[in-house]
Amino acid sequence: MLDTKLHPIMNRWPAQFPDRIQLYSFPTPNGVKASIMLEETSLPYEAHKVTLSDADVKSPEFLSLNPNNKIPAIIDPNGPDGEPIGLFESGAILLYLAEKSGKFIGQTKADKHRITQWLMFQMGGIGPMFGQLGFFHKFAGSEIEDPRPRERYVNEAKRLLNVLNQQLDGQDWIAREYSIADIAIAPWLRGLEFYGAKELVGWDDYTNVTAYLDRFLDRPAVQTGLVTPSRD
After folding, report:
1. pLDDT band of 5, cuts 50, 70, 90
2. Distance between alpha carbon 45 and the CA centroid of its chain, in Å?
3. Domain map of the chain by residue range?
4. Which CDD domains does the annotation name (predicted)?
5. Of 89, 112, 177, 231, which is least surrounded by CB within 10 A?
């Protein structure tokens, strides 16, 4: 059984409120999924800033919770059957918090599966493809002279945006009602601005998507989650 008080991660990021969910994260598109969900559900939590530097994510303390050295990760001292649980992977965390709170996962089993498919769409498509677009457009990959890698991810980003645009035609949220799928997808759409890639993908042409992101960013819980934990 996971012992929250003796867990190695507590040596580097001690819990001030050990009875609350402990969030280890940084405000990236993946990181804010967890903080936004915690804000939306009003589950008590304590946020710890884990930067993307090797000194943090590759430290023995963080690896003891997430061997894949990626944020976010959580420890819930009141997990299933009252036993503590530690989790990593943003999609898994969203599913866990939705089931724990009974929120944003739909009203029926069919709803849950429809929502989950769009969550997986983000995890397997939007996240990796947009991330590669950012790498080849803004970061180290931009130095590669061969245009084909960037073109590949630009075209794939456009395709994914078109899928979203069609799905959102006539509805406010990706699976009809607001859900963990939206909490997963929308932060990555916002990331296109950080990558300086909105014009590159023709952002303004996807009118359903642009209105969708505006609706998402208007939510108070989203506004708080986007800056939790603080970068400062």
Report:
1. confident
2. 17
3. 9-103, 109-221
4. GST_C_Ure2p_like (cd03178), GST_N_Ure2p_like (cd03048)
5. 231
